[in-house]
UniProtKB/TrEMBL annotation:
<dbReference type="InterPro" id="IPR050483">
    <property type="entry name" value="CoA-transferase_III_domain"/>
</dbReference>
<dbReference type="InterPro" id="IPR044855">
    <property type="entry name" value="CoA-Trfase_III_dom3_sf"/>
</dbReference>
<protein>
    <submittedName>
        <fullName>Crotonobetainyl-CoA:carnitine CoA-transferase CaiB-like acyl-CoA transferase</fullName>
    </submittedName>
</protein>
<dbReference type="InterPro" id="IPR003673">
    <property type="entry name" value="CoA-Trfase_fam_III"/>
</dbReference>
<dbReference type="GO" id="GO:0008410">
    <property type="term" value="F:CoA-transferase activity"/>
</dbReference>
<dbReference type="InterPro" id="IPR023606">
    <property type="entry name" value="CoA-Trfase_III_dom_1_sf"/>
</dbReference>
<keyword id="KW-0808">Transferase</keyword>
<dbReference type="Pfam" id="PF02515">
    <property type="entry name" value="CoA_transf_3"/>
</dbReference>
Length: 408
């Protein structure tokens, strides 16, 4: 059975992570995604462990897509995008503001050609404003949004940039949700729309429920609370780390009992969530020795015996063998032809009525030019002429056995 987005056509003109991950999520759920790349290919093809022209980063963000290489500086390439946009349901781009307009491919131009198009523009700071024209990457947005300041080094107090490209990925999640909302609106109204999404806005919004909760109330603001989660850092055991914590009184009592200190549940210093936040250092002094005296397996066993929320801190390679990850089938293997097998996460959402297949392989650079252009009615002679003129990238070169079939 096809996925919930079967029949939805997506043009992915984005690069690196935010837009590509969003488009990859749509591909996971059954959409036909055509990735349009420059002759040099997406920068992410060259980041991380790499086989041929496909890196691990590129594979994870672009699984299940088709690739077409176009030199968008050329008028013929711009016309090809217009033809594709006339047939598309969704277009995703993350050029700097104004760039698509200068190519004649801005939202106004393409919505005039296809009023049903959902055109999503991802920018770093917004389409207008004092920083709109500046280059923006994940680390820059982490800094400006306050995320770096919210994750200070526990010892030095220095702000940190998280290594997980957090802002790119949360922007991708926001983008995928916004696209589906716009498609639902189109089902009601019959028309598409331009959707603007700034990474900065996504990151600030992401911070608001917890890291920024002291900045919510304006009139007669209550006293500030300690930072959310200050008492939730991992406990160091004799052989590793684990997290045991919970906001409910019964959960805190269970944690104390699991550490063999049930009397702390009635200690006035820890009588409420706010009190535990304010007295986090004192709580650590009480319980750190108990954690250090046992190994991680024992801590997990004791906490679970008291029904306390608990989890071991897995190293990244340990996630692969985590019993619940294995049970859920969170990770699947994908055949990538001569490049070998690859491990990828399947779509986290399970659609019981319209289940999608697993993630497909990522495309080689320009792999699907003949198919995509053929669907527009442009035959081999025209394609060859475009290649000679530099409109298309050169014909992809790879061993026949390395050409996987991209699910559609």
């Amino acid at each position: 059975m096809a996925g919930p987005l079967e029949g939805i056509r997506v043009l992915d003109l984005s690069a690196v992570l935010s837009g590509p991950i969003a488009a990859g999520m749509l591909a996971d759920q059954g959409a036909d995604v055509v990735k349009i790349e420059s002759p040099d290919g997406d920068t992410s093809r060259r980041i991380g462990p790499r086989k041929a022209d496909i890196s691990a980063m590129f594979l994870a963000a672009n699984r299940g897509k088709r690739s077409l290489v176009l030199d968008l500086k050329q008028a013929a390439a711009q016309q090809i995008v217009r033809e594709l946009a006339q047939r598309a349901d969704v277009l995703i781009e993350n050029f700097r503001p104004g760039a698509m307009d200068r190519l004649g491919l801005g939202h106004a131009a393409l919505l005039a050609l296809n009023p049903r198009l959902v055109y999503l523009s991802i920018s770093g700071f917004g389409q207008t404003g004092p920083n709109a024209g500046e280059r923006a990457y994940d680390a820059v947005i982490q800094a400006v949004s306050g995320i770096s300041a919210s994750h200070r080094n526990q010892v030095s107090g220095d702000p940190q940039v998280l290594a997980a490209a957090l802002c790119d990925k949360l922007t991708a999640l926001t983008a995928a949700q916004a696209i589906c909302a716009a498609l639902l609106a189109r089902a009601r109204t019959g028309v598409g729309q331009w959707v603007e999404l700034a990474m900065l806005d996504a990151a600030v919004s992401f911070q608001w429920p917890d890291a920024m909760y002291n900045h919510v109330w304006l009139d007669d603001a209550p006293p500030a609370s300690p930072e959310f989660g200050v008492s939730q850092k991992p406990w160091k055991t004799s052989d590793g780390y684990a997290v045991a914590s919970g906001p409910q009184p019964v959960e805190f009592a269970a944690v104390c009992a699991g550490f063999g200190r049930p009397e702390l549940a009635n200690d006035p210093r820890f009588a409420s969530v706010d009190a535990r936040f304010r007295n986090a250092a004192a709580l650590r002094e009480e319980l750190d020795p108990s954690a250090a005296a046992i190994d991680t397996a024992t801590m997990l066993q004791r906490m679970r015996a008291h029904n306390a929320p608990v989890g071991r801190v897995n190293e990244r390679h340990e996630v692969l063998a985590d019993p619940q990850v294995l049970h859920n089938g969170t990770l699947v293997e994908v055949d990538h032809g001569a490049l070998g097998r690859a491990r990828l996460p399947r779509s986290p959402a399970r659609f019981n009525g319209t289940p999608a297949g697993g993630p497909g392989p990522a495309p080689h650079l320009g792999q699907h030019a003949a198919d995509v252009l053929g669907e527009l009615g442009h035959g081999a002679a025209q394609q060859n002429a475009w290649r000679e003129a530099g409109v298309l990238g050169p014909a992809p070169v790879f061993p026949k056995s390395s050409v996987p079939t991209t699910p559609r």
